Amino acid sequence: MKISSLLLLCSFIIINHSSAKDTSLHSKIISNDLYKVTYSQLYQQPLFIIYDYGYPFRKKIPIIKLKPLYGIDEIIYPNAVKIIREFTRPIGVETSDDDDYTNNMYDKGDLMPINYFDNEKNENYLWSYLNCSLMHKTLKEGLWRILVDYEQSLHSDSLYKVDVEIIANFTNQSKKVNGGATIPNSFTKIITYSSDMFNKKEIIQEVYTFPNNNSVEGKKKEDFLDKNLSGNFIIH
């Protein structure tokens, strides 16, 4: 078992950002009911976002669909109103916009997964460009989705409290899209969980770093696991 005071992880984050040009004067730290994000107005991209799933005290109850009565056809009511949701720019922060995701190979990557947390109460936070990053289509539809499903299964199928940190990695050579936003070179996701809600001193940590390009196609998430930063840790 590894012993850690989380200095290892902190140094990893510091080293990660030291390679990029100083964005401190152009960054804002924003907290809301769902996540905490450090946003770079220079890059027009999130640098760092934190969210968690909490403790699943109750398991989801399966929905049982009753069969229609004999001799009566089932009636289906289509949606009368179809709502198309779009990402919006928050007031007071210079973010990316729709032009940055047009006519290129990058999708609107929701960092805190919309599909899991989406409801009327959360939609303004989830559908904000604060929660959106330039993510290569191959990565978003492949390994990133697989990793999101994995972190959600840790929460839904167990008693784990799951904390997630995402770091968008930039360098001085990071390129821009025509819209003006800067493309992350890679994404690092840190998944931390513990099965004991009363003893938080022992945690399990998994750290993955994915290049933001099509080189991830056909590979497994384990291929991008950083074994030096992953494992069981004791927090002092």
Question: What report would you give on this structure?
Answer:
An 8-stranded mixed sheet has the order 1-10-9-8-7-4-3-2, sandwiched between helices. The two termini are 14 Å apart. With 236 residues, it is α+β, with helices and mostly antiparallel strands. The chain is globular. The model is unreliable at 1-15 and 57-66 (pLDDT under 50). The protein has helices at 7-18, 114-117, 123-126, 137-156, and strands at residues 2-4, 27-31, 36-40, 45-52, 106-110, 132-136, 161-169, 186-194, 202-211, 231-235. Helix content is 17%, strand content 27%. It is built from 4 helices and 10 strands; from the N terminus they run E-H-E-E-E-E-H-H-E-H-E-E-E-E. It has a domain at 27-57 and 82-183 and 209-219: Extracellular Endonuclease, subunit A (Extracellular Endonuclease, Chain A).
Quick synopsis:
The protein is of the alpha+beta class. Helix content is 17%, strand content 27%.
Give the amount of beta strand, in percent: 25-35%
Q: What is the highest CATH level, the class of one domain?
A: Alpha Beta
Cross-sheet strand order for the largest sheet: 1-10-9-8-7-4-3-2
Task: Quote the average pLDDT.
Answer: 83
What name does CATH use for the topology of one domain? Answer: Extracellular Endonuclease, Chain A
**N-to-C SSE series?**
EHEEEEHHEHEEEE
Uncertain stretches: 1-15, 57-66
Q: Give the % helix.
A: 10-25%
**Structural class designation:** alpha+beta
Tell me how many strands there are. 10
What can be said about the biggest beta sheet?
Answer: 8 strands, mixed
- Report Rg: 20 Å
